[in-house]
Amino acid sequence: MCAPTRHIHAPLHGVNGGSPDRRGRAGATVPDEWYPPPGPREDASRAVPTVVDDTDRRSAPERGRGSDVNSHRLPRTVVPSRYDIRLEPDLDTATYTGEEAVQVEVRDEVNEVQLNAVELSFTRVEAEGPDGTRLEGAASLDPATDRVHLRFPRALHPGEWTLRLGFCGTLNDQLHGFYRSSFKDAEGRTHVMAATQFEAVDARRAFPCWDEPALKAVFGVTLVVPDGYTAISNSAPIREEPAGPARRAVTFGDTIRMSTYLVAFIVGELESTEPVMVGKTPLRVWCVQGKRHLAAYARTAGAFCLDFFEHYYGIPYPGDKLDLLAIPDFAAGAMENFGAITFRETALLVDEGAASHGELERIADVVAHEIAHMWFGDLVTMAWWNGIWLNEAFATFMEMLAVDAWKPEWQRWVSFGVSRAAAMGVDGLHASRPIEYDVRAPRDCEAMFDLLTYEKGASVLRMLEQHIGPDTFREGVRLYLRWHEYENAETTDLWKALGEASGQPIPEVMDGWVFHPGYPLVGVRAEGSRLHLTQRRFTYLGDPAPGSADEPVQLWRVPVTVRASIAGQPVERKLLLAAAEDDLALPGPPEWVVANAGGHGFYRVAYEPALLDRLASNLGALAPIERFGLVSDTFAQAQAGDLSAEGFLDLTARFRDETDRNVWAVVVGALAYVNRAIDDDARESLEAFVRDRARPAALRLGWDPRPGENELTRQLRGDLLRALGVLGDDPEIQAEARERYARYRADEHAVEPNVLPAVIATLARAGGEAEYAEFLERFRHARSPQEEQRYLYALTGFRQAELLNQTLQRTLDGEIRSQDAPFVVRAVLVSVWGRALAWEFIKGHWETMRRIFPPSGFRRMFDGISALVRPEWEAEVRAFFPAHGIELGGKILDQYLEQLRVGVRFREREAARIAAYLGRVVREMPTR
Ligand code: BES
Ligand code: ZN
Which tens digits make up the pLDDT trace of 834-876? Predict the structure, then answer.
């Protein structure tokens, strides 16, 4: 009934790894073992110069086909305006059948229509003309271009035609396209459901379509499902009819005019919260049966955000309902399908009373981010994938604004500093790329979902917002949305709208940040009552990359905000540093100077030694984000070899009284980086050093919450205990953790929710087989997604090779979901106890991983290779990728390899000196 459709060319094998990817939380500066595990981040006509990489990145067969540089863009001779799609999934056989009527405009006479389709079989191809002519056609698939060619016996003359297609496909297990997910109920019975994930280029796997963001259309969807199953799509259901034995056909209202990557179908045994009305929109949270009690928090967050964005954007939500759905198997963190946002369970469902601050913040973030997309991304969409930053950077920026408005006490813009620093970690590499970057092949689309798009993008938007003022910025955003609603736009369109609102030439300031890689290191020297400022590109490896076109003259327009203390009074000055150097006059000689006041600037600061010293002696005068910047910038310069590692380690002594968790995160993250660089025999000294730095703050906070204490303090307590128990190998903390865990087993309220994850991580670090067995059992029977994650990642925190190997093995035998498996391998890869064996494991099991991990996972897994900082490992890693034909898309692999190089060089330069320094310092420490 569903015979395979003929292929024009044989399918291409080999390269795998196009990886849609959540933005990472880590960069060269802040290793992310100190963050909660992730859920486990052109047109020829364009007016603005883009840095175009002119190497031909098409696959060999494509290059063989001549000069068709646009083989990834469909011809515009036939374009769709409306799809009516009817799908009937069969969950038992994991297949589905589909019918589709597409209204198209034929612009030039054609015998052949080309659209996208992958791994589909065609059962019917027909075209109906404006005058009622009917033509029967034939379909042939071209796997090399992801296309289907529909050939007709006669030409289709210009006008409005309807294509009628019949097709079928499989519900795959790869978490993209139309795929199968499963879950176990309380009785242990397995249930199967189906869901979709189309961004960036996988709608073509579910139904034949013009799968490019600029080819917007209206979608009318019907899903035929078994009784007892819920069907969800982008709009509210408008009709249900019986459709065969124990099945019904659910028809949904027309969608807005939108891009294919935003279409969604979800079919399963689901339950939902009561709807909450936000203006005219009912909002619901959906999950598999038995989990509704975990949905209240997201419902509240979602309702707040929907209302917040309607006001911010000044445009009512353009859909007829908004569903937030938790999907048990989900590769990314969440996806902004219009009206039907999908999430991995950890990003939506939570037991609020048992969750840590970080876990709650993550849910608020993801919910805010995806709802922000309903306008920015869904209503107005980038014209092509090179502009994906418009979507993602903006949603990330709005995520902060909304969460900050919802919970001002969380100080979300301060914790955003961690993300900014992570982006600087990548953007300080020669292998960085401009935020907006040429994209051709699908794999390169997927490679765009990285720290540069999300976090650098959001950082430069924040910098601009602060530069022109928040109200003006919002006004520009409103104009942009109104001008382009239901259509597509480019970066230049956003600049035009912001320019209109501000009366300022936006491209002049912004193009350097968006269309060029890298960021400046701003040098600061005091000369009497003048400050001398300089700028040059910051890179970890120093000298410009050979042949790099941007070096050495690249300059930015840097909005510099300076705060100085002059005769005991604070003075603030702003300056747009446009030249390589400039002077800033102050009313008198400064006692100290902060050269990125407020921390909004996407640049690092290099203070002359005397200024650095005076700043470090006046930390009390700095805001948390400014202290964060001081630590982050200083460590980056130590990584680059511009400052000594000992100098950095000395500086950390000033932070014993630190009260901000983000500042602690950057301090502890740097010490974890050092821990990976040193030899094993220096580790004990480093552990003692960690205890020396973090103990006073931890002792001050104690183990138990105090009345009236805020959420951030509680989270800080958890972070510090974890740093001591794990990185500091602190026996007292470990003993107390054991004690507390025993109490927790008797009474689950005995340990504060922010402290519990630290207790678990500490026991993994200090424990053995008994703890492993306990955590494995708890992972298997977890009562919330957060609990499941904690115990899962605890299984990566042991020291014993035998136990870590068991964990690695579980990523392949189906016990650990494929959505989590690559992250679990990565976690072992960045552990000093696990990295050697995780690397062996990858080498030994790569072919299996390639088969069973979702393609989106490889990038996240290989991100961990930068922890392999030994020259022997580095050589192996470099050889591994070409030997196996692994490509990660864009510049991702080059970035990982360069980060590894930075680490190996740091080790070669510093390891011995650090060991000697630590030995000295530790000998002088009071024993305790
Ligand atoms: N649009 C993305 C999700 C996506 C991108 C899926 C590329 C597949 C390929 C979504 O809006 C997103 O950014 N999700 C993030 C979470 C967000 C809070 C940063 C993610 O999935 O990590
Ligand atoms: Zn997004």
Answer: 999 999 999 999 999 999 999 889 999 999 999 999 999 999 9
The answer to whether the CB of 109 falls within 8 A of the CB of 161 is no
Q: Determine phi and psi for 285, rounding to 5 degrees.
A: -110, 130
* DSSP at 869: -
Query: What pLDDT is recorded for position 927?
Result: 65
For ligand 1, the distance from its centroid to the CA atom of residue 179, given in whole angstroms, is 18
pTM equals: 0.93
CB-ligand 1 contact for 334 (6 Å cutoff): yes
Q: Mean pLDDT across the chain, nearest whole number?
A: 92
Contact yes or no for 729/797 (Cβ under 8 A) = no
Whose Cα sits closest to atom 17 in ligand 1? 366
Q: Is 455 in the pocket of ligand 1 (CB under 6 A)?
A: no
Burial of 388 (0-12, 13-18, 19+ CB in 10 A): buried
Task: Mention every residue, 6+ apart, whose C-beta is less than 8 A from residue 570.
Answer: 563, 564, 621
**Nearby residues of 690 by Cβ (< 8 Å), 6 or more positions away:** 668, 671, 723, 724, 727, 728
Give the active site residue among 345, 370, 465, 788: 370
CA count, 13 A, side-chain hemisphere, 32: 27
Q: How far is CA 331 from the centre of its chain?
A: 11
- Indicate which atom in ligand 1 lies nearest the CA of residue 336: 11
Instruction: Give distance in angstroms: CA of 369 to centre of ligand 1.
Output: 9
Judge if the beta carbon of residue 25 lies within 6 A of ligand 1: no
Atom 2 of ligand 1 has which residue's CA nearest to it?
335
Which atom from ligand 1 is nearest to the alpha carbon of 373? 11
Find out whether 254 and 293 touch, Cβ atoms under 8 Å: no
HEC string for 724-768: HHHHCCCHHHHHHHHHHHHHHHHCCCCCCCCCHHHHHHHHHHHCC
Q: Give the pLDDT band (50/70/90) at residue 21.
A: very low
Whether 365 is in the pocket of ligand 1, judged by its Cβ within 6 Å, is yes
Distance 277 CA to ligand 1 centre (A): 26
Do 349 and 784 contact (CB within 8 A), yes or no? Answer: yes
Residues 6+ apart with CB under 8 A from 461: 393, 394, 397
369 in contact with ligand 1, CB cutoff 6 A = yes
* Local confidence band at 343 (pLDDT 50, 70, 90 cut-offs): very high
Q: What backbone torsions phi and psi does residue 116 show, to the nearest 5 degrees?
A: -90, 140
274 part of the active site: no
Residue 75 in 3-state DSSP?
coil
Contact (Cβ atoms closer than 8 angstroms) between residue 563 and residue 625: no
What is the pLDDT at residue 442?
A: 78
The residue contributing the CA closest to ligand 1 atom 19 is 41
Q: How far is the CA of 769 from the centre of ligand 2 (A)?
A: 41
d(CA 468, CA 473): 7
Q: Which residues are placed with Cβ below 5 angstroms of ligand 2, an ion?
A: 392, 395
Burial (CB < 10 A; 0-12, 13-18, 19+), residue 686, is buried
> What is the 370 CA–ligand 2 centroid distance (Å)?
6
Predicted confidence band of residue 149 (pLDDT cuts 50, 70, 90): very high
Range scoring the smallest mean pLDDT among 69-83, 271-285, 341-355, 559-573? 69-83
Q: Is the CB of 335 under 6 A from ligand 1?
A: yes
Over pLDDT 90: what percentage of the chain?
A: 89
- pLDDT grade, residue 774 (50/70/90)? very high
